[in-house]
Write a structure and sequence with these properties.
The protein is mainly alpha-helical. It has one domain. The protein has five helices and two strands. It has helices at 2-6, 12-23, 29-37, 47-55, 96-111, and strands spanning 63-66, 85-88. A two-stranded parallel sheet has the order 1-2. The two termini are 26 Å apart.
């Protein structure tokens, strides 16, 4: 599992196709499983799946972590405009993890997760 995760960038479209097929017919199968054991889920890449999750009540809020200058990915149909909140990821260098994760930690506390 860890090898697949570490190597995911090399097989993005393949993983997207597998997940989309697994999620048929309504786009929710994986996400229904994820919310059973998690307060926060990630990895939605398809606009139709995001809206299906919202309509089904699986998620209450969608957050886009925006990294300006990053190339768009072909396996992604979801965009910044589809999400409720946008958090810019502008941190770089040695201070990145501490500063950025501190911001996300404060958001998590505010949301109660």
């Amino acid at each position: 599992m860890q090898d697949s995760f570490a190597d995911r960038h090399e097989h993005r479209q393949e993983w997207a196709d597998i997940i989309w097929e697994y999620n048929e017919p309504d786009g929710l199968t994986l996400y229904r499983e994820m919310v059973k054991t998690n307060d926060i889920i990630n990895g939605i890449r398809k606009t139709s799946e995001l809206y299906a999750c919202k309509e089904a009540g699986l998620i209450n809020l969608s957050i886009w972590i925006d990294r300006p200058g990053r190339a768009e990915l072909g396996s992604m149909s979801l965009g910044v405009e589809d999400c409720d909140i946008v958090i810019p990821n502008l941190e770089h260098g040695d201070t990145f993890p501490q500063k950025y994760f501190s911001k996300l930690s404060r958001l998590s506390r505010a949301l109660g997760v």
